[in-house]
Amino acid sequence: MQSKLLAVLAVGAFAGAASAQSSVTLSGIVDAWVGQTHHKVGVNPPGTGFVVDSGGAQASRWSLRGTEDLGGGLKTNFVLEQGISIDNGTVSTVSNSNIGFNRAAYVGLSGNFGELRAGRMLGAFDALRGSTNHLYDSSGFASTGQVWGAGTTAANGLAAVTGSDYLARGNNTVMYITPTFGAFSGSVSTSASEGAATATANPRMVSAHAKYAQGPARIGYSYQTENFANGKNRFHLVAGNYNFGPMNMVGAFQRQTDERIAGHQTSKEWELGLDAPFGAATVAIGYASAVTENSAGTKVVDAHGLSLMATYDVSKRTRFYTAFRQLKTERADGSVSLDASRFGVGVTHKF
């Protein structure tokens, strides 16, 4: 009897030690907003509509995250994360995927050397761009993605103009994140197309970023090239933020060259954002602009957007918000191909 008791205690002690060195957590964000959309131009017929939507402030998702301490400063890590559309209970479309763990699915090793990951994940380019976007990179109300990816429909004898923005995530990705060297850090990632690249999806990608962070200031440079079946889409980004104390400023300049377009087209883009906390409340404003030229140097798209958001933290896990966004896109002759706005109130709950 005594030997059995000792065996049970030994097994319990071993299990306790193992659990102390490893962990798996379930977490996520549930975000929904209710409001109104208004289209003067861009849909037929134009008009105003009532909306219940997901991910106004932050994209709704759930995730499993795990880590195990292997000793000597070495750890294994994994993340499985799926986007959710709260308004209809389905899997949301994230980086051309609406199945499985579409936000992230990777395993990695971390230690004094940095971190190495393999799977589907946000790339090195997004590590800088996402963190320097206005309105805290708001999923539903930040203007940057829509403005920088703007195209136009055909009208007035002008041809349609194709617009695109960067791919934030890649399949079949390997990523290395450096440790911090003084004030410097960075990352590099590559995604294999595995022979499945098309004109719009699953390209072979290479991206990298480096940044300097010291005190209230941070500035960095990021690069990404996407190799599609019919050409390359390239991005150069300089971005940063500065905390003034009562106010934080973010900003970015980006140059995009899309070689999938005959003769290629080039976009010059910028965005600026300010946010100021007032106790449990924060007010933020952002503006984005993009001018796209064809191979002859003629302006074919002029797009801009204004975003506003106010948040109030009810608790550590729950936040109320109200937000507004206005988007406008013009053709080469000054005619408008898109004039749309949205307004809403919502709640973000983290678990």
Distance between the termini: 45 Å
Mean pLDDT: 94
Number of domains: 1
Model regions low in confidence, pLDDT < 50 over at least 5 residues: 1-20
In CATH, the homologous superfamily goes by the name: Porin
Q: Count the E strands.
A: 18
Principal-axes shape call: globular
User: Which architecture would the CATH scheme give at its second level?
Assistant: Beta Barrel
Helix content: under 10%
Task: Report the radius of gyration as a whole number of Å.
Answer: 23 Å
Q: Which H/E pattern describes the elements?
A: HEEEEEEEHHEEEEEEEEEEE
Strand order of the largest sheet: 1-3-4-6-7-8-9-10-11-12-13-14-15-16-17-18
- What structural class results from the helix and strand content? mainly beta
In summary, what is this structure?
Its main location: membrane. With 351 residues, this protein is mainly beta.
Please, could you describe this protein's structure?
The protein is mainly beta. Helix content is 9%, strand content 58%. The chain is built from three helices and 18 strands. It has helices spanning 2-21, 124-129, 144-148, and strands at residues 22-41, 47-54, 61-71, 74-85, 90-91, 104-111, 114-122, 169-177, 184-191, 204-214, 217-228, 231-243, 248-258, 265-278, 281-293, 299-313, 318-330, 336-350. Strands 1-3-4-6-7-8-9-10-11-12-13-14-15-16-17-18 form a 16-stranded antiparallel β-barrel. It is globular. 34% of the residues are buried. Pfam families: Porin_4 (PF13609). It is found in: Cell outer membrane. Its main location: membrane.
